[in-house]
Design a protein that fits this description.
- There is one protein chain.
- The chain has 115 residues and is an all-alpha fold.
- The chain has a single domain, classed as Orthogonal Bundle (c-terminal domain of poly(a) binding protein), CATH 1.10.1900.
- It is built from six helices and no strands.
- It has helices spanning 7-20, 27-30, 32-71, 76-86, 92-101, 103-114.
């Protein structure tokens, strides 16, 4: 019985890896065995960094809110606590956007929470 190789599937699998390795330097984009290792490593970093990105943006939003809150005579923690006491559910992304693009509206919000 002849040996079965299934060249179509093998070729497709190799093409898929080499397509993902497009733009890599040297053998990393040309040689399948090298490209496979670097694509796997790249996908691991991509998975990890999608989660890190969420943390990084949350930190940025908190820094922006704190800076704007201090300009209005309060701190980040006091502002967030006052918002929760008043029952205002605005997430940090929206708050930081308000602080950056509409400082007057943010100031009104701070004044509302102080009362």
């Amino acid at each position: 019985m002849p040996r079965s190789q299934n060249k179509v599937a093998s070729h497709k699998r190799r093409k898929k890896i080499l397509k993902l390795a497009k733009g890599y330097w040297g053998a990393r984009s040309k040689v399948f065995t090298v490209a496979k290792n670097h694509v796997e490593k790249g996908l691991v970093h991509a998975y990890r960094d999608r989660r890190l990105k969420k943390r990084t943006f949350r930190r940025l939003w908190i820094i922006r809110i704190n800076a704007a809150a201090r300009q209005n005579g309060t701190t980040y923690s006091r502002l967030i606590h006052a918002l929760s006491q008043k029952g205002i559910n605005i997430n940090r992304k929206i708050l930081s956007n308000l602080a950056l693009e509409n400082p007057s509206v943010f100031s009104e919000l701070v004044v509302f929470t102080k009362n």
